Amino acid sequence: MARKKIALIGAGMIGGTLAHIAAQKELGDVVLFDIAEGIPEGKGLDIAESSPIDGYDSRLKGTQDYKDIAGADVCIVTAGVARKPGMSRDDLLGINLKVMKSVGEGIKAHAPNALVICITNPLDAMVWALQKFSGLPENKVLGMAGILDSARFRYFLAEEFDVSVESVTAFVLGGHGDTMVPLVRYSTVAGIPLPDLVEMGWTSQDKIDAIVERTRKGGGEIVGLLKTGSAYYAPAASAIQMAESYIKDKKLVVPCAAKLSGQYGLKDLYVGVPIVLGADGCERIVEVKFNPDEKEMFDNSVAAVKELMEACVKLDPSLG
Ligand code: A3D
């Protein structure tokens, strides 16, 4: 069986990390595309030179030519600008919308059968625009955010309970931003929901509330520490999990930004919801039952996503 081909559009901090993990896992051969000359070539060569030590045979190539992504099975998009301290994800909108247009056209021309995973912020609006610009089927264009936000939530909870991260499951839904919705009722330690753990005296409601707040601001916490950019190790690991579930048809149930077509009473927008991710891309959207508080938080988050979409349409009326 021929090797899979993974195209990384954007070879910055996340793109380089994606290339390293994808190669180490032998998910396929890796093409790094970037407009910055030398960066994708240099990162590709550096990673390839580690392959004899780590023992993997993935081939890596850096390029400025979209022709080199031809026939890619997966395209992971990080092209654009990342947040600097004091910048919100929304400040990135104007710059990154133009980038999504050129990336969408490049993918449409050279890799129309790929699964496309968008990471560029502001995530929900950018993946929505990327799907429109590329014209690829909705089930094959997804946004990465929920896995990362849930991983942060899981990590903080595992720390609080002093248990393995593997024993903690958590769902963070909604748009990727300060309005995201960490679902406490659906988050568990070995299947025991958090509200039960509060009753059992494992933690307090105040501590859970503080962890929820830290999760919502998890991206900003890293930006504040790094000062020169945003998180890249955990975002890359999250997107690789999505690519792996697609390539291996694992059908993981994971929160991703997916295009809704009636689910949750919403249409024609991307927002974070649990999906089954397999060989057909988004194979099913899971409709979680919300209580009134959760519904209010989800609605607020959707309203924030809609605002960004409207701002996109103002900047590029072809999206309307
Ligand atoms: P960075 O290291 O700046 O890399 C971005 C790369 O994109 C640079 O190498 C640029 O040269 C390249 N680029 C710019 N324009 C184009 C273009 N038109 N075509 C191809 N390449 C281009 O950023 P990063 O890797 O740290 O972050 C990438 C994106 O991910 C940013 O928008 C971040 O805000 C976003 N991000 C999202 C999450 C989510 O959870 C959704 C988390 C972290 C970062």
From TrEMBL:
Annotated source species: Hyphococcus luteus
Function summary: Catalyzes the reversible oxidation of malate to oxaloacetate.
UniProt-listed GO biological process terms: lactate metabolic process; tricarboxylic acid cycle
One annotated GO molecular function: L-malate dehydrogenase (NAD+) activity
Gene3D superfamilies: Lactate dehydrogenase/glycoside hydrolase, family 4, C-terminal (3.90.110.10), NAD(P)-binding Rossmann-like Domain (3.40.50.720)
Start and end residues of each Lactate/malate dehydrogenase C-terminal domain: 148-312
EC numbers: 1.1.1.37
Residues at which NAD(+) binds: G10, A11, G12, M13, I14, G15, D34, N96, I119, T120, N121
UniProt keyword list: NAD, Oxidoreductase, Tricarboxylic acid cycle
InterPro entries named in the record: L-lactate/malate_DH (IPR001557), Lactate/malate_DH_C (IPR022383), Lactate/malate_DH_N (IPR001236), Lactate_DH/Glyco_Ohase_4_C (IPR015955), Malate_DH_type3 (IPR011275), NAD(P)-bd_dom_sf (IPR036291)
Protein name as it appears in the record: Malate dehydrogenase
